[in-house]
Specification:
By secondary structure, the chain is α+β, with helices and mostly antiparallel strands. Strand 3 (about 55-60) and strand 4 form a beta hairpin. The protein is globular and about 50 Å long. It contains 4 helices and 14 strands.
Amino acid sequence: MSDSDFGVPAGIDVLRVFCGPDGRHGNALGVVRDGRTHPDEASRQALARRLGFSETVFVDDPERGRVDIYTPGLRLPFAGHPLVGTAWLLDLEILELPVGEIFARQDGEFTWITARPEWAPPRKLERYASVADVEALTGPPPGEGWLYVWAWEDEAAGRVRARAFPRRDDGIVEDEATGAAALLLSARLGRALNIAQGRGSQILTAPAPDGTVEIGGRVMLAVRG
């Protein structure tokens, strides 16, 4: 999807989060800078459904970093790419969510957040035998529940090829870049990862001794609302 393909109401910024090294791809994110324009859960859910992004963020307090995250079909207590994107857009060091405080930092072209694996919604992480097997998928494999398929591209270097399929009947057939799933995979493997997901997105992870995991990536502004 090119930047010109986004058609959104005024007052909503559109970002691309976890862009590739060439600045392309990334997962589209809608950010409503003034959450007061949609003051209740029903109106926020309706807007998220209308926009059709995998997630939309409502900023309730830009100074304290209090945000509210929605998919087209449900509210989320935590999600990776919305938090990376919002931290970059608002230049925040802390974001407030129901699960707790999320610390963020900028490091050159990358924005990072620190999170705990238990904050991420459940995902099935399924290892495939090869990158070719991952790329051969033409759609979600049969089954129910959120699925993250992955294969080693270069195990020694921590390079992973991945694709994500929400399988939740909300119009999102495949998620282009999924921070929460990358967080869970990094925690399970116990090592830093360089993940190529979707059509060309890139997610970096770095687990810490205290059980947290940093998730990092590039963010680009697609549409200024």
